[in-house]
Amino acid sequence: MQAEVSTLFGLNIYTERGIYIGKVNDVVLEVNERKVTGLAVTRLNPDMFDTSKPGVVIPYRWVTAVADIVLIRHIKDQFKRPEEIPEDYNISNDD
Q1: What is the mean pLDDT of the chain?
Q2: Which of 15, 40, 46, 73, by CA, is between 20 and 30 Å from 64?
Q3: How many Å separate Cα 80 from the centre of its chain?
Q4: According to CATH, what is the number of the domain 5-79?
Q5: Is the dihedral of CA 45, 40, 86, 88 positive or negative?
Q6: Average pLDDT over residues 46-67
Q7: Domain ranges in the chain?
Q8: Average pLDDT value for residue range 77-81
Q9: In sequence order, which residues have a C-beta less than 8 Å from that of residue 60 and are 6 or more positions away?
Q10: What pTM did the predictor assign?
Q11: By the 8 A CB rule, do 63 and 27 touch?
Q12: Rounded to the nearest 5 degrees, what angle is found at the Cα of 43, between the Cα atoms of 33 and 79?
């Protein structure tokens, strides 16, 4: 998938299941390889993230589509603090 880097700024990010993640604030580039390696995300969904941090970097390999929004693989509890993850959560769960 190809897109101009500047078109990514400000796009909303959702999972493939329609869960809002946040807004693209910046793009992480690997200059030598001329590729995007991550998306810096702010305005995080407090149900999905530890919002005591100003943002997170989502690996670009998680991106499945870019258009009017960015779609990423579903990430269940990926960024929550350990004490917020339910005890019955299975680490090997790929959900």
Answers
A1: 82
A2: 46
A3: 13
A4: 2.30.30.240
A5: positive
A6: 89
A7: 5-79
A8: 56
A9: 28, 35, 36, 37, 38, 39
A10: 0.74
A11: no
A12: 70
